[in-house]
Specification:
The protein is mostly beta strands and 638 residues long. Helix content is 6%, strand content 56%. The longest helix has 16 residues.
C-alpha cells in the first residue's frame, strides 16, 4: 500500500510541475484552528485538516449534521439513513464512537451517563454551524481522551449583524417497502443575531418531530416517534482590542420511542412500551487574551444530563424503569508563546471531572462511588523553516482510577513549490473507560485505558488555476487493550473487559473536486478501510461519495450519490441462544436537492428527494432504512 501511495505522490509532482505557471495558492491562506488549538494558516499546518466551510454548509441546508458528515472521506455514520430516532454509530478510520472526540467552539462535548460517554450529534442543528474542522488522525496530545481516530471540531456561527432567520421543513418518513406519502417529518427553528459596541448575542432554537415508521422491520409495526428540542444562547463581550470572552449555554431535550433489539426472525421486537427521555444542560465560558508574544485562553464548561428509560423485559415479562444522571466539568487552559517568527510553543493544562448515578430494578449507584478525575498537562512545539513545518508534542495523563501514562506525537508537512503539500504523522492516543463501563451493573472497575497509535502519509494540491483539487491519504492504526463487552451465552455473565488482542486498521482516502465552470462543480471521495475481522462490524471496506452542483444567482441544484459496500454484522438469536454472524449487502443511493431564493432573497425554498430510486437496504440487520422520501422547506431572513 505504501509503494502505491509513494508512486501517486511522484506522479502528482511530475504532473503538477508542468502546470506550475497556472497555479494559485489561495487555498493555503485559509485559517484553521484544530491543528494547534490556535488560529494558523493552512499553509503552515502540520496536519491535514478537512474543512466543511460556511459556503458548503449553505449548499446543504435541510440536511442533518449526520448526513453532512457521512459524505466526508474516512467517516461512516451508521444510522444517518435510518429512522431519525435510531441509535447512531460514528466510525472514523475504522474506529467507533468512543474513539472520536467531539468539540464545539473548542469545548469537549460528552455525556458522562452514556455507555461510551459520547456526545449525541443529533442534538445539534446545521443551521447553528459556521464551519466544521475534522482531524482524521490520533490527536490525544492536544485533545486528550477519546481523540484516538480523530477530532470533529464544530465552530458555531458568529454574531456579525443584526439579523433574524426562521425556517420550517416538512417531509415524509417511509421505508422502501412502504409508500406512505403523508407528512411525518417536521423541523422548525429560528435564530436572532444582535450586536452592540461591546456585546454580541446569538440566540437559536431548533426542534424536530417525526413519526410514521417503526425502527424494526416488519408488517404493521407500530411507528416510533421522535422529538428533539435544542436551545442555544451565545454571548460575546469584545470591548478591548486584545481581549474577548464568549459565554455559551445549551439546553437539549430528546424524546423517543424505540423497539427491542433485533434477535432473529422468530423474535417479535416491535414494542409500544419502550421510550426514553434525555435532558442536558451545558454552560461554557471562554475568555481569550492576546499579548505581545502570543495569546492565552481558557475553555471551561459545566454539564448536567438526566436520562430516563422505560423498557419491556422479555425475560421477566415486565416493564422496567432506568434513571441515569451525570455531571461533568472541564477546564482547559492553553497558552501560545511565539519564540520568534518561525517557532512557537503551545502549552496547557486540562482538568476534567465526571460523576454519575444510576437507579433501576437491579442497581443503585451514587455519584460518590461512580466518579473519576483526569488532570493532564501538554506541550506542543511548532517550528517552520523554509517550506518545512514540524510539530512535536507530549502529554502527561493523570487519572484517578488507573496509573499515569505519557503520550507523544510528531507531525511533518512540506510545501513543494507552493502547489503540493505532503504530510507525515505519528500519533499516540488513549481512551479512558467511561463511568458506565466501570460502575454500571455490567461494569468492571479494573478496566485500563485503551491505547492507540497511528501513522499516516498524505498529499494535497490544487492546479489548473485552482479548478482541480486532489487529496490522497494512507494510514495504519493499532489498538491495544480495547474496551469491549463480554457475554457468555452459557452462563449469561456480561461485563466490560480489556481485550487481550492487537486490533489493526489500515486504509486509503482519496478526494477530488473539479470546478467545471464558475457555476458547476463536481466532487467525489473514496474510502478504503480494512479492520481486523473481529472488530469490523458495520464498517464498509469500500465507500464512494459523489456530488454535482450547479449554482446560480438565486440558488442551486445538486445531485448526490452514495455507494456503500457489504458490511459484517452480528446479532444474538433469542430462539437459538447464540450469536449469528451475518453480512449486509452493498447498496447505493441517489438524492437531489434544489434551492431558490424569492422576494429580494428574503425567502428561500428548499426541496429534496432522497433515495430517488427507492433502494431497499439495511444499515443494521433487522432495522428499517429510509426509502424514497421528500422534504420541502421554507427559510426566512430579516
Amino acid at each position: 500500500m505504501n509503494k502505491h501511495f509513494l508512486w501517486c505522490i511522484f506522479a502528482f509532482a511530475n504532473i503538477y510541475a508542468q502546470e506550475k505557471d497556472s497555479l494559485t495558492t489561495n487555498y493555503l491562506k485559509e485559517v484553521i484552528i484544530s491543528s494547534t488549538k490556535f488560529k494558523v494558516e493552512k499553509e503552515k499546518s502540520t496536519q491535514q485538516i478537512t474543512v466543511i466551510s460556511k459556503e458548503e454548509l449553505e449548499n446543504k441546508k435541510g440536511q442533518s449534521i449526520l448526513q453532512v458528515l457521512n459524505a466526508v472521506a474516512g467517516i461512516e455514520i451508521n444510522g444517518s439513513q435510518s429512522v431519525v430516532g435510531k441509535n447512531i454509530g460514528l466510525y472514523m478510520r475504522g474506529g467507533r464512537n468512543r474513539q472520536v472526540a467531539i468539540y464545539i467552539n473548542g469545548v469537549p462535548m460528552n455525556d458522562a451517563s452514556a455507555i461510551n460517554a459520547s456526545y449525541d450529534l443529533r442534538l445539534l442543528d446545521v443551521n447553528q454551524i459556521e464551519k466544521i474542522e475534522i482531524i482524521k488522525d490520533a490527536a490525544s496530545v492536544l485533545y486528550g481522551s477519546g481523540a484516538a481516530t480523530g477530532v470533529i471540531n464544530i465552530v458555531l456561527k458568529k454574531q456579525n449583524h443584526n439579523t433574524a432567520n426562521a425556517y420550517f421543513y416538512i417531509g415524509t418518513q417511509t421505508s422502501a417497502q412502504e409508500s406512505n406519502i403523508n407528512p411525518n417529518y417536521f423541523n422548525q427553528g429560528f435564530s436572532i443575531n444582535t450586536k452592540t459596541n461591546k456585546f454580541s448575542f446569538y440566540t437559536s432554537l431548533n426542534s424536530i418531530e417525526t413519526k410514521g415508521l417503526s425502527e424494526i422491520k416488519g408488517i404493521d409495526n407500530e411507528a416510533d416517534k421522535f422529538s428533539n428540542l435544542n436551545l442555544m444562547q451565545k454571548i460575546t463581550y469584545n470591548s478591548l482590542k486584545n481581549f474577548n470572552i464568549d459565554v455559551l449555554a445549551f439546553y437539549d431535550k430528546l424524546k423517543n420511542n424505540f423497539d427491542n433489539t433485533y434477535s432473529g426472525e422468530g423474535y417479535i421486537a416491535d414494542n409500544n412500551i419502550n421510550n426514553g427521555l434525555t435532558e442536558q444542560f451545558r454552560i461554557a465560558i471562554s475568555p481569550k487574551y492576546s499579548y505581545n508574544k502570543g495569546e492565552v485562553f481558557i475553555n471551561a464548561m459545566l454539564s448536567k444530563s438526566n436520562r430516563f428509560l422505560t423498557l419491556y423485559n422479555d425475560w421477566i415479562l415486565a416493564q422496567e424503569n432506568y434513571n441515569y444522571n451525570a455531571r461533568s466539568a472541564n477546564v482547559d487552559l492553553a497558552n501560545k508563546y511565539n519564540i520568534n517568527n518561525k517557532w512557537y510553543v503551545v502549552s496547557g493544562f486540562q482538568y476534567q471531572y465526571f460523576d454519575m448515578s444510576q437507579t433501576d430494578n437491579y442497581t443503585n449507584i451514587n455519584p460518590r462511588q461512580a466518579k473519576y478525575i483526569i488532570a493532564d498537562a501538554y506541550l506542543s512545539s511548532i517550528f517552520s523553516v523554509y517550506d518545512f513545518n514540524i510539530q512535536a508534542g507530549l502529554r502527561y495523563n493523570s487519572h484517578s482510577n488507573y496509573s499515569n501514562n505519557w503520550l507523544s506525537n510528531l507531525n511533518l508537512s512540506y510545501n513543494i513549490n507552493n502547489f503540493i503539500k505532503c504530510f507525515a504523522a505519528y500519533n499516540k492516543a488513549y481512551i479512558a473507560p467511561s463511568l458506565y463501563q466501570q460502575y454500571s451493573s455490567f461494569g468492571n472497575t479494573n478496566l485500563h485505558p485503551e491505547k492507540n497509535q497511528s501513522v499516516s502519509i498524505s498529499a494535497e494540491s490544487t492546479f489548473l488555476s485552482n479548478k482541480i483539487k486532489l487529496n490522497l491519504t494512507a494510514y495504519y492504526r493499532e489498538e491495544n487493550q480495547s474496551i469491549d463487552f463480554f457475554f457468555n451465552s452459557n452462563t449469561f455473565q456480561s461485563y466490560y473487559i480489556n481485550v487481550d488482542e492487537l486490533v489493526t486498521a489500515r486504509g486509503i482516502e482519496t478526494q477530488a473536486s473539479y470546478a467545471i465552470t464558475s457555476k458547476i462543480n463536481f466532487s467525489t471521495n473514496y474510502t478504503y478501510t480494512q479492520v481486523l475481522s473481529n472488530y469490523n462490524r458495520l464498517i464498509p471496506k469500500n465507500k464512494l461519495n459523489a456530488n454535482l452542483i450547479y449554482n446560480y444567482s438565486k440558488g442551486y441544484i445538486s445531485l448526490n450519490s452514495l455507494y456503500v459496500s457489504s458490511r459484517a454484522d452480528a446479532f444474538y438469536d433469542a430462539t437459538l441462544y447464540t450469536t449469528i454472524q451475518t453480512k449486509l449487502r452493498e447498496y447505493y443511493t441517489v438524492s437531489a436537492h434544489f434551492s431558490h431564493k424569492i422576494l429580494n432573497n428574503g425567502f428561500q425554498l428548499i426541496w429534496q428527494v432522497n433515495n430517488i430510486f427507492n433502494k431497499d437496504f439495511e444499515e443494521v440487520r433487522g432495522y428499517n432504512a429510509l426509502g424514497r422520501n421528500f422534504k420541502l422547506g421554507l427559510l426566512f431572513s430579516f
